[in-house]
Amino acid sequence: MSIAQLLSEYGYLAVFIGCLFEGETVLILAGFAAHEGYLSLPLVLLTALCGGTLGDQVFFLLGHRFGPQLIARFPRWQPAAERVSALLRRYHSGLIIGIRFMYGLRIVGPIMIGSSGIPIRRFVVLNLLGAALWATVVGGAGYAFGQSVQWLFAGASHYEAIAVISVIGAALLVAVLRHRWRRNR
């Protein structure tokens, strides 16, 4: 099975699942794949919007119901939880919209926001707005990266496979390093 077939069959599912959690790497790769014609950019953005919104909504509801217990159960979340609480007091709506752009707060953020007593309806609206902005910016960055690669390697189409493999390899390396860094922290 070729890379093109894999992307066309499982690309949108990978974007959705990746965006349920911290999906920046997956979304950038999907934007790049859309530029290369393997996926549709509007569908990538819509899938990322749905996955990002659903993921944060689930974490918000978990925080709404079990917030303090979850933070107590995972002590390594405590510094991030304190940071979110401080930011929430100062930048209520802006934090809800922008939490998915803040490194290391993608899961803890919605949990803490949920435990803060913010009405569910208000979170749904701001979460949807934030997810739309995030999907457009991050997915668009992947698409723009593809445009840059095309411009840099114009006339060198035989390097396309090398570029795709390099991007996937770099993304996997970043994901592994992030995982190891979090585990060691």
From TrEMBL:
Positions of the VTT domain? 23-143
Please name the Pfam families in this protein's record: VTT_dom
Q: Where are the transmembrane segments?
A: 12-33, 39-63, 123-145, 157-177
Write down the InterPro entries for this protein, in alphabetical order.
DedA_domain, VTT_dom
Q: Which UniProt keywords apply?
A: Membrane, Transmembrane, Transmembrane helix
**PANTHER family membership:** ALKALINE PHOSPHATASE LIKE PROTEIN, INNER MEMBRANE PROTEIN YOHD
Protein name, as recorded: DedA family protein
Name the species this protein comes from.
Jeongeupia naejangsanensis
